[in-house]
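[AMINO ACID CHAIN]
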Amino acid sequence: MGSVSTIALDAMGGDHGPGVVIASALRFLAASDRVDLILVGDERRIGQHLGNADRTRLKIRPTTQEVGMDEAPSKALRGKKDSSMRVAIDLVKSGEADACVSAGNTGALMATARFVLKTLPSVDRPAIITAVPSLHGHTHMLDLGANVDCTAEHLFQFAVMGSELVTAVEGVAAPRVALLNIGQEEIKGNEQVKQANELLLRSGLNYVGYVEGDGIFLDDIDVVVADGFVGNVALKCSEGVAKFVSHSLSTQFKRTWLSRLAGLAAMPILKQFRRTMDPRRYNGASLLGLRGIVIKSHGGADEIAFENAIHIALKEIHANIPKRIGEQVGRHLDSGQYKAIA
């Protein structure tokens, strides 16, 4: 029997605060054993939401501050040392927790996590990665907004980190890695993408070349690499399209009595489609490249979505992700092929 893992939850983060976080925590504990949770935040408000719930595997770490969703990361970093977000990350740093999960301000979370935990020795910049649905199951994408401007070397490191994460948590021996571009021909793309392509072609990764935006969802690829600006735009576009399709279908089926009957007949298919596209099943983005595990939940997550983010944290604890990524990035950077290009 393995040891007990501990996960710290930023109870005050996100649009809904402790109501959603605590409901998610109780759902998670009911489904998982050998895991303890630490609820970090306002003790009074946390207690109100816990009520008479079993606290055997729950602890509360009181704090006096919160980070606003629109607060400048620099302000949160300098002036919110007793915030629920900061203390949750501090618990990972001290070893009291094996990972932390927050639905709070993304910029503040990345800045604080990077300041407190530091990046791994061979990693220049941490990156945000998450899974998105695809025809072949799902695809992992990074970076999703942590790094607006990237060099070819940064993209190369992102590819190594993404590949190792998929191997560790998905059990894929040689993940198929692709570079997001505006075309698949060699002449397409900016200089950073072309140089990253050269680095990846000479790497030991299972690199399959360029992929266009539609290939994220249609091609058989495990990891898609982009800089944070492009990756975030691609992710938000996909979320917008999914909402547009869902809204349009709902509107069309409600137009006439005949279309309402057609909607009833199609209900089983529509439910399966909704389940496949349900963003709650994919909620939980990892901040890869840090010396500790930090999971970012969507700010508007409900209890099902936030619970999924806690499960992702547990997967990464079991897979010892920071150690594995540190070893793999270092090994690739030390290779002769990388130095010959870089």
Q: What stands out?
A: The two ends are 45 Å apart (CA to CA). The mean pLDDT is 91. The longest strand covers residues 127-134. Residues 257 and 302 are 33 Å apart (CA to CA).
